[in-house]
GNAT family N-acetyltransferase (Muriicola soli), 174 residues
Amino acid sequence: MEILFKPCSDSDLDDLFWISRVTFQIAFEAQNNPEDFAHYINTALSKKTLATELSNPECRFYFVYVKNTLAGFFKLNDGKAQTDIFDNKALELERIYVLEDYQNLGIGRMIIEEALKIAGDAGKTYIWLGVWEENNKAIKFYEDNGFVKFGRHPYYIGQDKQMDWLMKLELSTL
């Protein structure tokens, strides 16, 4: 499969806004209170918030193309942009989303491999992420790809306090 990872820039804001909202809605809208979900998506995934994140040098978004068609994206956080750990030896894989038509094709694994390459090139020793404790499919995917649980943290969708597992993958285990 022909796949390309492209770092996002400010000029990609409209596409990032679209794919962020579409993939998040498909993944989580049905499991959440409509008001809480609307509040979350209209703040965390607003054009203003995404533009701020795009302009932060410690946040990096990457588009994933399959045969020149946008199929997904992922986001890496470094330094103070990390949501919890703030470890200079780590990169946070905060978002990893693939459009439904491109799921189950191995793209998620390719994203993890690319994130590991980026982390290794930056001299990091591990990558970590947060995954909703009720998202069993994602948890299994991450475990199958070598991630291990090392903690928990709260994650809010509007006023709804949910719990994420914190999972990490040491580069030395590869």
Q: What stands out?
A: The CA atoms of residues 45 and 54 lie 12 Å apart. Residues 3-126 form a domain with the Aminopeptidase fold (CATH 3.40.630.30). The chain has five helices and seven strands. Helices lie at 13-28, 34-44, 47-55, 107-121, 136-144.
